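so i finally got all the pieces together for this one. its two components total, 977 residues if u count the protein bits. some of the lines might not be protein, just check the labels. i wanna see the whole assembly predicted at once instead of chain by chain like last time, that was a mess tbh
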Amino acid sequence: MRHTFLYFLLVNFLLLTLNSFSQKDAINITTFKVVEKKVLPAYKTTRFDSISKHNATNLAELLSNNSTVFIKSYGSGSLATASFRGTGASHTKVQWNGINLNSPMNGQIDFSLFPSFFFDDAEVHHGASGLIDGNGALGGSILMNSKETYAKGISANLNQSIGSFGIYITALRGAYSNKHWFLETKVYNNLSENNFTYINSTKRNKPTETQENAEFKQWGIQQAFYRKFKNSTLGGRIWYFNSDRNLPHTMLVSDNIENQTDKSLRNLIEWKGLSNRFQYRICSGFIKNGLIYENKLANIYSKNKSYLSDNNINTKFYLNNNFILNNDINIKYESAKADGYNENHTRFNSSWLFGLNKKIKRIDMNFFNRLIMVGKEFKPIAPSLGVRYQILKKEVLYIKANAGINYNYPTFNDLFWSPGGNKDLNPEEAQMSEIGFNFIKKLAKTSINTEITGFYSEVKDWIIWQPTEFGYWSPNNLKKVENKGVESTLTISTILSKLTVNNKISYAYTESTNKKTEKNLDNSVNKQLIYVPFHKLNYNLNLNYNKFTLNYNFNYTGQRFTTSDNNWYLPANFISNIHLARQIKLRNKTSAIFTLKVNNLLNQDYQSIAWRAIPGRNYLFSFSFNFN
Amino acid sequence: MGRLSIVAIILSFLSCTKDKIGPQCISCQEEQIQITATLLSDLLIINEGNFGSGSGSISRYNPQTKRVNNNLFLQANGTPIGNIAQSAFQIGTKAYVVINNSNKIEVIDINNFSSLHTITGFNSPRSFLPINQNTAYVTDLYANSIQIVNLNSNSITASIPLSGWTEDLLLHNDSVYVCDMTNDNLLIIDPNNNSLVDSIKVGESPNSIVIDKDSMIWIMCSGGFSSSNPKLIKFNPQTRTIETIFTFPNIAESPGNLKINATGDQLYFINSNIYKTSIYANSINTTPIITSNGNKFYEIGISPITEEIFISDAIDYIQDGIIFRYSSSGNLIHQFKTGVIPGHFLFID
């Protein structure tokens, strides 16, 4: 009830904002371009097209359906973490417009708490390229970015979705811009009963049961305000997000009443511009995260709060067109207070990145080094070197290679959790390298883009929590993990008069093995890490005809082991989703889109995590109204 | 043409539809056996499994043939036993297996491992103890009570309200003695009217309790998470007084898993290593009978027939654990693999 009221307040606020800026600016100016942190051509990146972004409810779904990143999801609305090139959940760093979002408490990100509505595009930096985004990305990093547009007047979008198992998602966006100002408000609300039925295969006779205690509510608001000057832009964003969810139990448990509330307030202010040969972005972010976990059966009520201040000065100096100097200074301040800590903990986590990019004929080269200072620990060297070479003069065929080192520092939980926290932990260290080919061919009606990358990395001092002889759990730098594999993508686009056909296939083979043991009885040595699939494949087919769009999405996830000696595994699964949209032009500036989405088209019964129920075939119908 | 090959790939994926859902076990396929009847002197090993994963299992070991059978419940019933198989108790040909996180007790036939009954409605059950032919008590981590189970109807009939975590318990002379982990008490319950009769402060976190041949009760108190010195307490149930307190010198120690031999004169416990102490000793034996040598000992069991010492090691807690079998004098006889986190031994008699 309280939420409904707040919701109406927000809608009113949105309408007011729209009214006060209804004056239209007809002057069309060319948008001033600021090249953001661009990953150098020697590294593998994945970018998502607007259709993929539009089709995915949240970041977890976007990555899972369109990239080689493996998302370990406990179910709809439940915790989703990423495993990237065989690394762990805290080894994937996530940024929102250059601000790091990983929790200082556990180093992780819950990808289910980022509706794709709240960002305009997303990008994945694989392997050593994550070093450009800061320390800690041992597998890679994921970036959510927002865009500003100018001189577009008023635009508004309303999207309402209704789906199986009591899903109601409302998303509203209003924006106004003239040649100087950009203002944008986004409001989001998601109510899901999530009471699907499933076959409980842990019970004799395999009865059909209804998922209990799985409902969730998410709502959020994001406000952007930007002012453009002659050579620079000043602006900021405020993003509040609230999630209240019950945590469903496994099929093996009869009743369990657990609840988790996450509240995040993310603020950022930035000033960016270009003067002569000097490009800069000064950005400051402040993030406040609150997490409350409640377990009524166990009488647990646990409150955690963390604060993060992330400050960046990023500059680029163009000596000439082919020679660029990079300087990125990052000063991060982390603070957290939890029931599990004896006191409030704070730490400075700062680094300085210095880089060179040089182009000599058909060779693109870059070198950069990150100097890291975390607490009192100092690491002067975390370098990366990359080269791209265009093999043939007339064809776009590149060979790319790079290598780098990155460090991930222990989290506050690792260091200070009581009991168990270990103050003597070393940072995890990854040595990463990759080599690949990229071929791009544009024909009259067809274009082909294909890339194949082989990667190898070694993570030393990998932190693992294990029970101690004292009865509690404690982390130690126990493992050495070797990751190797292949990532490949192939995109073929064809235009046949009114029909556009777009095929995209991506596949990853990942071998992630533990190389170190304390005792010779340990059977985990040289075995695949748990919950890292050897094979992951996505296929997306997009058909556009007139105002119709059809998307077919296929995901194959190979078997994942659930025990470290590789004696138990979850079988491979293959899931199909389909998405049909019809656009209708209403008037000059208004249009409507009707969308029907069918998830798990073939009604597969599978488990993503052992004994966690997954819904069968389900539907989501959306209506969106656009004015611009 | 490229599109055709993609279609072919998809079709090949679609065609390999399998009926396998949920965790599958590789060694189980090799282990598929006709389950034979359990023999006297056989040992059942209850493997907890990982929290949330449902990898709890039952193994059986024959000390004569040294044969191990794993995943017996799964093989017999086609379903996993549940989440965290905590402990087990034998009554005749039945074993009552307490499944902590699945809030239930599985009553199984020890000869074919089929589930006979499932007793449900618990909160977070820990230990099961029959107090007479018709009734059993079940301690609990979170329920703030002991549940009273009717063994004929296989249902919870009532509960004894208490406060906090109740753990190990024993029956002696028509009184039930319960370790109260939360309040550091030894609770005495009258099973005739199911009422709390007395509670005696012992050391911090009393985790295990045994009775010796002289009817003295021994309680091991771990001392919490390095918050006080651990204590081994000798309690006289006749006078309801503590007779002796043996205090461990190091606050960081965390002894537990107190066991006694069938004769009732030798105490065994884990304190990183395995220690054996006579009930008449003036101090705790500081020389271990078995040293850990880098292993993390998780549970011990003392064979009532041979006094052999069985010790489990969970290794990294996410793989099949190992059982070491030692002679009563501490010589290794055999070692074998069971299931994930072997946490309880049930000697069949």
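Chain A touches chain B through 54 residues (CB under 8 Å).
Chain A is about 5% helix and 55% strand.
anyway lmk what u think
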